[in-house]
Design brief:
Blueprint (H helix, E strand, L loop, with lengths): L30 H14 L2 H12 L4 E3 H4 L6 H13 L3 E6 L2 E6 L1 H11 L4
Antiparallel strand pairs: 1-3, 2-3
Length: 121
């Protein structure tokens, strides 16, 4: 998969964990499942993105304004780029309110990633 390709992820119900892929111990992943999961893990493989993701996930109330999480040692345009990558991978959702954008972790996607890696499943 090239860097310019986007993987379309189905919208997931925020309350339910809907694994996109079988657990890693269930057998070999299909090409499609591997591409979906690789896009998510690739988005988290950058230290700045991982810090931003962590800031959003741990922010009080479950959502964070971009104005409150942008202090990660890079410029504001770079923060926006990284947040866009996390949204495209399906890890964050966003909502514009006036001039600010608020981000939330997509809990069902994170639960799916966790379930896929859980050897006990």
């Amino acid at each position: 998969m090239s860097n310019s390709e986007l993987v379309e992820l189905a919208a997931l119900d925020r309350g339910a964990a809907v694994p996109c892929c079988p657990p890693i111990t269930a057998g070999e992943l299909s090409q499609a499942d591997a591409e979906k999961m690789a896009a998510m893990f690739k988005a988290l493989s950058d230290p700045v993105r991982l810090r931003l993701f962590s800031k959003v996930a741990s922010y009080a109330g479950g959502e964070a304004c971009v104005c409150d999480i942008s202090d990660v040692g890079v410029s504001q345009p770079t923060v926006s780029h990284h947040l866009k990558k996390l949204r495209e991978a399906g890890l964050l959702t966003s909502e514009r309110r006036g001039t600010w954008v608020y981000y939330q972790v997509a809990p069902s996607v994170v639960a799916a990633m966790s379930a896929m890696l859980d050897p006990r499943t």
